[in-house]
Specification:
The protein is α+β, with helices and mostly antiparallel strands. It contains two helices and five strands, in the order αβββαββ. The structure holds guanosine-5'-monophosphate (5GP) and zinc ion. Guanosine-5'-monophosphate binds next to loops.
């Protein structure tokens, strides 16, 4: 999508600190980290949020979870949290599907 921040990051049009990339997805460190390790994994194709995942695009979500497991292992993360916010009330500020991966500190439950 032409006017989407994360589409532009995935295309390299806006610079980011890349963690991982393949033909389907892109991972990069969050600009405002909420934990010692905080990166985001996004599909390269534009999907607004988990609410727009259906049979036509869900394969990339499974792929993203494989990538999360692989990258977390490469970074030596033994415990981490994966979060996706859907909609403004839940805290979604960028309308392109993304999974936060947070690690390196104690975390509370339930999340705020
Ligand atoms: P959300 O609030 O939608 O769940 O998550 C969006 C995340 O994107 C936030 O944690 C925010 O810090 C991060 N973010 C917003 N703009 C940029 C940017 O230009 N570069 C990077 N690396 N992260 C960004
Ligand atoms: Zn997008």
């Amino acid at each position: 999508m032409s006017d989407c921040l994360f589409c532009k990051i995935a295309e390299g049009e806006i610079p980011s600190n890349k963690v991982y990339e393949d033909e389907q997805c892109f991972a990069f460190y969050d600009i405002d980290p909420q934990a010692p390790t905080h990166f985001l994994v996004i599909p390269k194709g534009h999907i607004q949020s988990v609410a727009q995942v259906d049979g036509s695009n869900s394969a990339v979500v499974g792929h993203i979870f494989e990538v999360i497991a692989k990258v977390a292992a490469q970074l030596g993360l033994e415990s981490y949290r994966v979060v996706s916010n859907i909609g403004e009330q839940a805290g979604q500020s960028v309308p392109h599907l993304h999974f936060h991966v947070l690690s390196g500190r104690d975390m509370t439950w339930p999340p705020g």
